[in-house]
Design goal:
With 220 residues, the chain is α+β, with helices and mostly antiparallel strands. 12% of the residues lie in helices and 18% in strands. It is rod-shaped.
Length: 220
């Protein structure tokens, strides 16, 4: 592996880094990071086990030096020039004097193809519409009047609309027919109960809350 160390030494020396950094332990533990400055050229910003713009999750609330919580906050470009050069105004700010960090509060992170980097979407819950429901039936409770009563009629009306037996005597009322009339009347006694309350449907996967942080500067 000597040739690899020599190659790394040549590259690092070309960027003005001394030979004292070229031992195997330091090469294993550290990386040299090249970030674009405001002019778009690459600039050496330091050596550490992470880069400006790196994202990670921690399971406590102690934020390491150089890192900030991914909560959509706005920062001054002058305070974090390398991070501002990388993030621009993609996550907020004007990209000139201010810039924002991604807001991961209550969100899942999804891989990006590059062109859609920073886009957000989705929701914790939805309200189902009729089009989203599967085809289904509703049962109907039909209640007919079973005894002979006075006042039965041959034609239903909006007030005389209970299906029942005809009046006893020579003038029995026909209460059944084999075809539907041209102007059917809604019958009283036909009960279709309403169910449901229209509450939102939770569509979140089982989750565990952690703190997402992003590096804004490399701290030695």
């Amino acid at each position: 592996m000597r040739w690899l160390s020599n190659l790394a030494g040549s590259l690092l020396t070309s960027f003005g880094i001394g030979q004292s950094m070229l031992n195997a332990g330091e090469l294993t533990a550290k990386r040299t990071h090249m970030l674009p400055d405001k002019s778009g050229t690459l600039a050496l910003v330091g050596d550490a086990a992470y880069s400006v713009g790196d994202v990670k999750a921690i399971c406590h609330d102690v934020i390491p030096a150089g890192w900030v919580v991914m909560d959509g906050a706005i920062y001054n470009v002058a305070d974090y020039p390398q991070a501002a050069a990388l993030l621009g105004d993609r996550y907020g700010g004007d990209g000139v004097t201010t810039f924002g960090v991604p807001n991961a509060i209550g969100r899942s992170l999804r891989g990006s193809a590059g062109s859609d980097l920073g886009e957000t979407g989705g929701s914790d819950s939805v309200t189902l519409t009729t089009d989203q429901m599967p085809s289904h039936n509703h049962s109907v409770d039909f209640r007919a009047r079973g005894e002979n009563v006075a006042g039965a009629a041959t034609q239903p009306t909006t007030t005389n609309n209970v299906l029942g037996a005809g009046r006893a005597g020579p003038t029995l009322v026909t209460i059944y027919h084999d075809t539907l009339g041209d102007a059917p009347v809604a019958l009283a006694g036909v009960v279709q109960s309403n169910v449901g309350s229209g509450q939102d449907v939770d569509i979140r996967n089982p989750y565990l809350n952690v703190t997402w942080i992003v590096a804004l500067e490399v701290v030695a």
